[in-house]
Amino acid sequence: GAVVSQHPSWVICKSGTSVKIECRSLDFQATTMFWYRQFPKQSLMLMATSNEGSKATYEQGVEKDKFLINHASLTLSTLTVTSAHPEDSSFYICSARGGAGRTGELFFGEGSRLTVL
Amino acid sequence: KNQVEQSPQSLIILEGKNCTLQCNYTVSPFSNLRWYKQDTGRGPVSLTIMTFSENTKSNGRYTATLDADTKQSSLHITASQLSDSASYICVVSAERGSTLGRLYFGRGTQLTVWP
C-alpha cells in the first residue's frame, strides 16, 4: 500500500528553538495533507489541512504563526514549530490523501515525537 | 454537532477470545467511516473503510459493520492475538461536494490482549 514517511521520528530541542518536521508521500501524489497532534492516551486532534500550492487551513485554536505549514510539492509537506516551548511537546502525525473521489484512502505517517526541554 | 463516540474506552481480553468495539456517530451528511489501528507511539494504520451502501467489510480477523440508519458501526476482532493490543480509532468523514470532507475522530478504544 501507499506509504507516508515522517522525519524525524523523534526530536529533542531546547526551549526557544524551531523544529521542522517533514511529511512525504513516497509512492503517490498527495494534493492534501493533514497535520495532527496527539497527547498521551488522547485521540488525534486535527491541527491544519495543507493543500499543495496554497496556504494551509488551520483549525480553531491553532496558532498559524506558531505552527508553520508548507506544502510546496505534491509529495512533501512540512510543519515547523517555531520558538518551541515545553508545552509544545507532543506526538505530531501527518496524513496524506491518495487517489481521487469520495473514498480516497487516507494514509498516516509514523509520527514524530517532539520533546522540548 | 458532529461527533464520534466510541465504546468501551478500554477493554481487556484473553488471547484467542473475540471482541467487538462500537462506534456511534452523528456526523451528517455522511460520506464514509474508517477504522484504524494505532500501536503505541506509531501512526494509525487503516483496517477498513466503508461507504453508505456497505453493511460489512472484512480484513482478515477484523470485520466491520455499518448501519447508516442508526449511525452505528462495530469492529469485530476474531481469535485475538497479543499483537492486537492497540488503540482502535473510528473516523467518520462528512461529505462535502465531490471531495473528501472533514474528518471526525473518535477517542479510540484501547484494547489489551493478555496471554
Please describe what this structure looks like.
The complex is a heterodimer of chains A (117) and B (115). Chain A has 117 residues and is mainly β. Chain A has no helices and eleven strands. In chain A, strands 2, 4, 5, 6, 9, 10 and 11 form a seven-stranded mixed beta sheet that branches. Chain A has a four-stranded antiparallel beta sheet with strand order 1-3-8-7, with no helix packed on it. Chain A is globular and about 40 Å long. The termini of chain A are far apart. The mean pLDDT of chain A is 88. In chain B, the strands form two sheets. In chain B, strands 2, 4, 5, 9, 10 and 11 form a six-stranded mixed beta sheet that branches. In chain B, strands 1-3-8-7-6 form a five-stranded antiparallel beta sheet, with no helix packed on it. Chain B is an all-beta fold and 115 residues long. In chain B, β4 and β5 (45-51) form a beta hairpin. Helices cover 0% and strands 63% of the residues of chain B. Chain B contains no helices and eleven strands. The interface between A and B is medium-sized, with 27 and 24 residues.
